[in-house]
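Sample intake sheet
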Amino acid sequence: MTRTAVIFDIGGVLVDWQPHLAWSEALGSEQAAQDFIVRTDFLARNLRGDHGEVFSEMALELEDLEDQRLFAAYPSLYTRTVQAAIPGTWALLDQLKMRGVPVHAITNWSAETWPEGLKVHPRLGEVFETLVVSGRERMIKPDPAIFHLLCERADVAPQDCVFIDDGLHNVDGARAVGMDGIHFTSPEALEQDLSKRGLL
């Protein structure tokens, strides 16, 4: 009998990510750090990091030398950005595992910052049967290839998977390859969605 597998996203689902906290101390305020994020187009460059690019190399694209220095320092400051877990979702993950549901993960996460994240949340490296980190694979959600890679490594078919992500575009990507998709908005809503599917 085929068992439904649950695939988690991590950032925004299990771990709260606040990138401005990397620089709020150095720049004197959270607002100054938010301004830095806008000025350096950080979110777009961070996605390139999730795809395998290196922060010190991307920093060289910036004109201001101090901005270059701060941007290049991001991996070394990363632990400040992921201090908070989302406990309600972790509780649901634990319930799934107790019920014998296979639990996997696909995360858009830089290969440089992933080891730093594990320093804060070491269980991320232990709890999943199969874990795909985009920066290591040089492919990112919602590319169909990353979903197929997870299925290949976990030995599951897409139609036997439920994928959970806070990004609707990623959920749509999972659905496009044949997975069931849940758009994460809160642990409470996720509990209802998993219960409706008979997983809890």
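Comment: The longest helix spans residues 87-98. Residues 19-81 form one domain.
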